[in-house]
Every structure is written in structure tokens, then in C-alpha cells.
Amino acid sequence: MQLNARGEVTPGAGVDVYASAAISIFLVRAGAKINVHLLNTKLIGGAEVAFASDSLAQEFELCFDLSYTTEPLSAEFYAFVQIRDKIK
Length: 88
Known about the structure:
- By secondary structure, this protein is mainly beta.
- It is built from no helices and four strands.
- The chain has strands spanning 2-9, 12-25, 28-53, 58-83.
């Protein structure tokens, strides 16, 4: 018989900046948006517990881990076109 369990916690910090623009011409609306993520930092801590048993022996393991990641700069770009059924 073997049992495993894992838990993880991921707090993070960073700066998100975004800008968007859109224009409406008659029945069409179009625009763009950019998201920029600066210094996206995550501290990931986890723990794992394992128990194994057979007719000859029993094992118990407890493991902890901690990792740190930083993404200095990332960006996402979105563009859209929307056809409207009413003019506002």
C-alpha cells in the first residue's frame, strides 16, 4: 500500500501596467490592449508526505521544498474587432 499527498502555497508580487484604446465607426468597434508585467516574483513552498507499507517494511517520508522565481519583464498584446447591432 502506498499513500502520497502534496500541498503547495504560491504567494507572489509584481507590478502590472496596462493601456488600451478603442475606436467606434458606425457598426464596428476595434481596439487594442497591452499588458506589461514587471518583476513578477513568486515564492513557491510545498510539502509532500508519503507512506508506503508492505509485508516486510514500512516507510514514511516528509519532504519540504522552497523555490523562488522572478520574471523581469513580460507583455501580452490583445486586439479585437466587434460588430455591433446598434449605433450608440
